[in-house]
Amino acid sequence: xxxxxxxxxxxxxxxxxxxxxxxxxxxxxxxxxxxxxxxxxxxxxxxxxxxxxxxxxxxxxxxxxxxxxxxxxxxxxxxxxxxxxxxxxxxxxxxxxxxxxxxxxxxxxxxxxxxxxxxxxxxxxxxxxxxxxxxxxxxxxxxxxxxxxxxxxxxxxxxxxxxxxxxxxxxxxxxxxxxxxxxxxxxxxxxxxxxxxxxxxxxxxxxxxxxxxxxxxxxxxxxxxxxxxxxxxxxxxxxxxxxxxxxxxxxxxxxxxxxxxxxxxxxxxxxxxxxxxxxxxxxxxxxxxxxxxxxxxxxxxxxxxxxxxxxxxxxxxxxxxxxxxxxxxxxxxxxxxxxxxxxxxxxxxxxxxxxxxxxxxxxxxxxxxxxxxxxxxxxxxxxxxxxxxxxxxxxxxxxxxxxxxxxxxxxxxxxxxxxxxxxxxxxxxxxxxxxxxxxxxxxxxxxxxxxxxxxxx
Length: 457
Hints:
single chain, alpha/beta, globular, five-stranded parallel β-sheet
C-alpha cells in the first residue's frame, strides 16, 4: 500500500509505503487523526489531493466508532416499548450469522455464553470480542485494528496477541494497528509510524523509531504542567456507609452474573473492582448508580437511600459522578464540549438547564485540566473517541461528587491523558471529599489509594 501526497481537511501524509511482509503500528495521541487515516485507507474520506494505491478488495475495521454505530443501530430497532418484555435486539449469533457452534479459529474469544444475548446488552469487553469475531469471519485481506486491546481483560489480551501472531504467520490477512499506548507494541511489529496533529512525523523500523528521543518527549507527561485546580464547591454531609449491598444477585434467565455479593463502602474507602470480561463489574456499578433494573430487587443502600423505597433517583445521582462505556454510548445528543461538561451539574445527557456563570467557569476549568481548553466550542460528536472520553471525565468531576463511579475510565485514552487522569484520582484522594470506586483491567492502574479490592473473577 502506498500513500502519496495525501491531503484532507485534517490529514497530511507526504509518503508512506507498507510492504506485504511488514506489520505496521501507528502511534498517535488523542485527536491526532487516527480515525481520519482509517477513512483515507477505506475510501470513506474524500481526498483534496494525493493518491492511495493498493490491490486490496476487502478492508475491515475494528474501532470504538464502529462499535458505536452498531449500538446506535440496535437502539433504532429496539421494540421494547411495544413488547411486554425487554427486546434483546440482534443477538451475537445473528450478528455473526452462525447456525451452529463458534468456529474453531474463534474459540479463544470464548463467545459461547454470549451467543444468544443481544448485542446492546453486552459489556464493553464482550461487545469488543463480538465485533472482532464479525470482522474475522468476513475474511478481510487487510484489517485495521484501532485500539484492539482496550476494554479487554488481561487473559483476553494475551489470547488476542497470540491470534494476531498466527494471522500474520498465515499471511492471508495483513494487519495495521493504531495505538495510543506504547506498551501495546508486540515483538512481531516490524515498523512504527508516529502521527501528530494529522501528520506522520516519524516512520521506520520499530526499534529505530522507539529509540527516537523526540518520541519520548512527545509521549511524556509532566504533572507540573496541569493548570490550577478549581476551587472546592459546597457539598452536603452524607451518612456512612455510602454503599451497602446485602447478598447481591443479578441473573438473566438461567445465567447468574453474580450472587451472594456483600459490599460495604464507607466514605474514603476507595475501592478497585477487577475480574474478567463479563464477570459483572459494570453490572455492579450500574446497580449502585440505579441504571440497572435489578437494583430494586436487591437490598441496596446508596448514599443513605434504600433502593425501592420511593427515593428520588435524581436526589441520589446529584451526589454521584460517572464515567463509563455505557454513559459514553448514550451521549448521542447535540452539544459542544462545554455543554456536555456542564450537563454534569444536572445529571442529564445533554444540557437543558441554564447554567450559572460560576458553573460555566468551573466547567471551563475542568476542560482545561483535561487538556481541551481549545475545544470548548467544538461539537462533542466531532471530537475523537479519546477526546470525548476526556469531556466525560470533566462532566463527572465538575461538581466534585461525593461518590465517583469509574468503569474502565481510561478506555481510549493515550498514555499522557491516562497519566493525567491518574493525577486527578490522586488529587481527589488527597482532598478527602470524594470516594472512588473504579473498575479496571490494567495492572498499572492499581494505585496505592485503592485500599479496598473486590475481585469478581
